[in-house]
Batch of 2 targets.
Target 1
Amino acid sequence: MKIAALAGGVGGARLAHGLSMGLALSGSAADLSVIVNIGDDFEHYGLRICPDLDTVCYTLAGIGSPQTGWGRQDESYRAAEAAEKLGGPAWFRLGDADLGTHLERTRRLREGHPLSQITADFCAAWGISCRVLPVSDQPVPTMVLTEDGELPFQEYFVHRQCQPVVKGFRFEGAAQSQPAPGVLEALNEADVVVFCPSNPWVSIDPILAVPGVRGALSRKPVAAVSPIISGKTVKGPAAKMYAELGIAPSALAVARHYRDLLAGFILDRMDECYIEELSRWGIIVNATQTIMAGAEGRIRLGCEVLEFCKAILNAQKESTA
Ligand code: FO1
């Protein structure tokens, strides 16, 4: 069974890792393609930083920081400390090993190599056997519209620590962007598309905003995993964003966010109260423990999501039989 997973942020990376390990149990990690958000990408110290690509790759390679979920494990910050001592900005921490990624990615981009090719080469170097694809090779930076004006994503997320009240989002340059090579192929080859438990507004929507992606998805069964558990997120501002946009944060709100695309929805056991209403949509709904505790938690949820995808395919076979 081929899976295309849309992912951004720490929760998305962790389920992508669980799916990769789950497929590897049957010897087919290569059947997973992870299509990653690039809306968080920005320039810092003259380097091109791609946080969600790095968070997904470090997590898949088993070299990510278990504490933060982003950046590298066993990291040091000597270069950042030296730059900050000279007056450089300190609000976005770049570790020494992480800097190696940014230096080499920036060098290759300046030589004219596309981000998708650089990502494939980095995956080979890190021993990652599934495909990791930026949704586009063109920059599509997420701008956060707030009561303090329009902020670039990292300015909102890290520098302002998600404090400004959100009014909306803009994916700059989306209309002029194309899916990166391999993205539409991964979606067309997939038996099921999985929306990982990422922020619907600033991780999944920026991927759907690239022309051609939503069209390719609409021909496929989509299973989404809710990032919101009893009205809150494990990590990140998704619940706060829903509330500021006037929507009560809940797994049901997330399902409504994706409604026209869904064949299946997985929510946490604490949100079982929504199963009955969601089932009336004619989709398959499953409640489970969606918090992933360590590698075992990721493999468990990854295998459960893979079983869920098989159930969706079987249900579709029966309905067309
Ligand atoms: N997030 C923070 O809250 N503070 C940081 O200093 C920080 C540095 C950082 C460096 C590299 C990287 O790949 C990610 C980093 N992040 C940091 C996370 C980043 O803001 C991501 O965009 C979020 O994880 C959302 O996806």
Target 2
Amino acid sequence: MSELKLKGQTALITGGDSGIGKGIALKMAANGANILVNYHSNKKAAEETVEELKAFDVSAITYQANVGDEMQVQQMFQEAINRFGTIDILVNNAGLQQDSAFKDMTLDQWNKVININLTGQFLCAREAVREFIKRGPRPEVSKALGKIICISSVHEVIPWGGHANYAASKGGIMMLMKSMAQELGGLKIRINSIGPGAIKTPINHQAWETPAAAQNLLKLIPYDRIGETEDIGNAAVWLASDESDYVHGITLFVDGGMTLYPGFASNG
Ligand code: BGC
């Protein structure tokens, strides 16, 4: 068996109970990481995820918190430190959509998406950075002082009608990630994003659950398959491991080529 890439490290994964977050949790645990599975409302899903993670012989716990709430985020990090000693990896994954035609979009829909998707990433990253600096290096597990992976989207660069709040939040994540990376690289805090394309998860089920919908979606994907959560999990393990130690401040698109403007293949 190949060496475990994240052995002895702890990852805090927001929204780790389903979809992409769960896919990342499974791959990180398979690579030896202990995991805090943050969830918002689905306790049962979080508990089931933790059971699956324990099969990899790592420690795993659930923790309920709203990532958009400063106090809840601070308490969650305190719990992670109490239970695991420290954290080495933050996966800023929690996110949601509240889709609406622009003229009908309510302020609540706007605020909710910005609060969870963007402010939530800020609040969690700030706590992670504070902990990395406070505890100092752990050369026995990683060359970096700590790693942050922001889960963005192809929609940090592809505009998305009917989803202005969501696309704005993801564009914001891009500049949040890059600004943090520029400022904190000197401390050896390594920060990157993953930009998933269409991955089969509950968030976009209507886009792939019928054969007709899936056929339509595939027109946007040059590599001609819809992504799986393990595609993102594999990328996240690499970005969290020392194998990518010189990779800093990038968005790694894992999208089957969705960002290649496939409409131009036969037009323009
Ligand atoms: C969205 C999905 C969408 C995908 C590709 C993701 O960020 O959450 O709903 O299918 O981007 O458009």
